[in-house]
UniProtKB/TrEMBL annotation:
The protein's name in its UniProt record: Dynein regulatory complex subunit 3
Segments forming a coiled coil: 209-239, 366-393
Quaternary organization: Component of the nexin-dynein regulatory complex (N-DRC). Interacts with DRC1. Interacts with TCTE1/DRC5. Interacts with DRC7.
Superkingdom as given in the UniProt entry: Eukaryota
Subcellular localization: Cytoplasm, Cytoskeleton, Flagellum axoneme
Sequence similarity: Belongs to the DRC3 family.
Alphabetic keyword roster: Cell projection, Cilium, Coiled coil, Cytoplasm, Cytoskeleton, Flagellum, Leucine-rich repeat, Repeat
Family annotation (InterPro entries): Cilia_flagella_integrity (IPR050576), Leu-rich_rpt (IPR001611), LRR_dom_sf (IPR032675)
Free-text function comment from the UniProt entry: Component of the nexin-dynein regulatory complex (N-DRC) a key regulator of ciliary/flagellar motility which maintains the alignment and integrity of the distal axoneme and regulates microtubule sliding in motile axonemes.
Organism per entry: Molossus molossus (Pallas' mastiff bat)
GO terms for cellular component: cilium
Transmembrane regions listed in the UniProt entry: none
Length: 523
């Protein structure tokens, strides 16, 4: 299937090839000629044809961010790559190449029509991102396993499929299998599927289809559950309280606490530990619920702020548009009057008046922008104070609740130490009735060893609590700082963009006036 022409060397997709292709495929009328002279921006190109170019590797397409149709058939391409930025692509033709695997299509979420006809592909996969796929051409490849058809069931919009010329097309049950397992398909190998034959195929494979549907339903339910859990986790992380809706923090305190787990074998410690855990988890749940409520408050504050900003910007823009509309109405009349003026002195006077109008418009627009800057600065400062206060209150209350966890830990530590020392004294007197594991007995060689073991367990627990507090405080403060910084940066960029727009508009108006040739007008 290699179509490398011996008389041609493999070619690279460089800027020269792309510019030539864009130029040749652009409009040929006056507008097209002007575009050729001034140059066409690749980002504005919607369709690109690069067939029969002896291209070996897809490259340099990153600028074609608006591209909707790409034709790369009849080349010698070996890999699908370099398409990451073509997110608006709807139609892609890679037929008659040397491609061995389907890959590199993950960003093409809007693709509807894909042709990989006449390549070296042996497996249908890696198309998951193509949720809008309607037409798939894979004829004349090396696909031999009928189970590849099952993979295509996920594409609910797929209506046309071409697989002729593959080993699977030689199977006796080829068409019936596809008709049965892809019931929404309308065309197979360029022929419309007969509804009667589709019904017969469904009856023939009914048992297999029912079993498959059952498996798909189970998988879908599992997928939805996993997605819901991921979404829930993201919401908890956004509130900075993930893992606090249960015993996770408490369990983590004992996960690496070897001595603490040994001490749990002592008589009375088990009951003490259970009571400790219950109280600890209640505090964690309080933190969790409080965190979610505070997250909602922060969200409302941010949403309200964004609404105020957008309202102020839109009001300012509308006022500016009104002024520009009045100016342009007068502008057309002024230019006409200047062109129609036969007296040089009168014309110069009109030009002076028009220049004054342009300057006045510029001053009005810039004043309006300065007023908007002051208004937004006040709004931003107020929001910053409010969000900082919300974050500060959140941190203060969480730290207070975590302090209760430390109090519980300190109390538990004292009780465990008391039980441990009593046990040591009983062992010394030979009054210990319970049979302890060897690992636990090793802690009771002397009082110092025992106290150190209980202390080490206590230190681990406090460290876990401290780390969770530090993590929460650091993350919420970082979030607040990044948010406020981004808001200030966005306002600076908005202002620069607006000032640039005003200058460009005024310069354009001025250039129209400057381009009036007084001599030609008087002639």
């Amino acid at each position: 299937m290699n179509r490398l022409c011996n008389s041609l060397e493999p070619r690279v997709m460089d800027d020269n090839m792309l510019k030539l292709a864009v130029g040749e495929q652009g409009p040929q009328e006056e507008a097209g000629q002007l575009a050729k002279q001034e140059g066409v921006l690749f980002k504005d190109v919607l369709s690109l044809q690069l067939d029969f170019q002896n291209i070996l590797r897809i490259d340099n397409l990153w600028q074609f961010e608006s591209l909707r149709k790409l034709q790369l058939d009849n080349n010698i391409i070996e890999r699908i790559e370099g398409l990451e930025n073509l997110t608006h692509l709807v139609w892609l033709d890679l037929s008659f190449n040397n491609i061995e695997a389907i890959e590199g299509l993950d960003s093409l979420v809007n693709l509807e029509d894909l042709s990989l006809f006449n390549n070296r592909i042996s497996k249908i996969d890696s198309l998951d991102a193509l949720v809008k796929l309607q037409v798939l051409s894979l004829g004349n490849n090396l696909i031999g396993n009928m189970m590849n058809i099952i993979y295509l069931r996920r594409f609910k919009d797929l209506r046309a499929l071409s697989l002729s010329g593959n080993p699977i097309a030689e199977a006796e049950d080829y068409k019936m299998f596809i008709w049965a397992y892809l019931p929404d398909l309308v065309y197979l190998d360029s022929r419309r599927i007969d509804d009667h034959m589709k019904a017969l195929a469904a009856m023939k494979h009914q048992y297999g289809i029912d079993e498959l549907k059952h498996r798909e339903a189970l998988m879908q339910a599992q997928l939805e559950e996993e997605q819901a859990l991921r979404q829930q986790l993201q919401e908890h992380k956004a509130a900075f309280v993930e893992g606090l809706d249960g015993s996770f923090l408490f369990d983590s305190m004992y996960a690496e606490d070897v001595e603490g787990n040994k001490l749990a074998f002592l008589h009375g410690v088990g009951e003490l530990l259970e009571a400790y855990k219950n109280k600890f988890v209640v505090i964690c749940l309080n933190i969790f619920e409080y965190g979610l409520k505070q997250q909602e408050k922060r969200k409302v504050e941010l949403d309200t702020f964004n609404e105020c900003v957008q309202e102020a910007i839109q009001e300012s823009q509308q006022q500016g548009k009104d002024w520009i509309a009045k100016f342009e109405e007068k502008h057309l009349m002024s230019l006409t009057a200047i062109r129609d003026e036969s007296d040089l002195a009168s014309m110069e006077l009109r030009i002076t008046e028009y220049n004054k109008d342009i300057t006045e418009l510029f001053d009005l627009l810039m004043t309006l922008e300065m007023q908007l800057i002051e208004q937004l600065e006040e709004t931003i400062n107020m929001f910053e104070r409010n969000i900082v206060d919300l974050v500060g209150t959140f941190i203060e209350n969480v730290q207070s609740l975590l302090a209760q966890c430390r109090d519980l830990e300190n109390h538990h530590h004292e009780k465990v130490l008391e039980i441990a020392i009593n046990t040591l004294e009983k062992m010394a007197k030979g009054e210990l009735d319970e049979d302890l594991p060897d690992g636990v007995r090793a802690l009771f060689v002397d009082k110092d060893t025992l106290v150190n073991a209980v202390g080490a367990s206590h230190d681990i627990h406090l460290l876990k609590i401290d780390n969770r507090e530090d993590e929460l405080v650091t993350r919420v403060n970082s979030w607040c700082t990044r948010l406020v910084d981004q808001i200030h940066k966005d306002e600076v960029m908005r202002n620069r963009k607006r000032v640039k727009e005003i200058n460009q508009y005024v310069e354009h108006m001025q250039s129209e006036l400057d381009n009036l040739d007084c001599g030609d007008i008087l002639d």
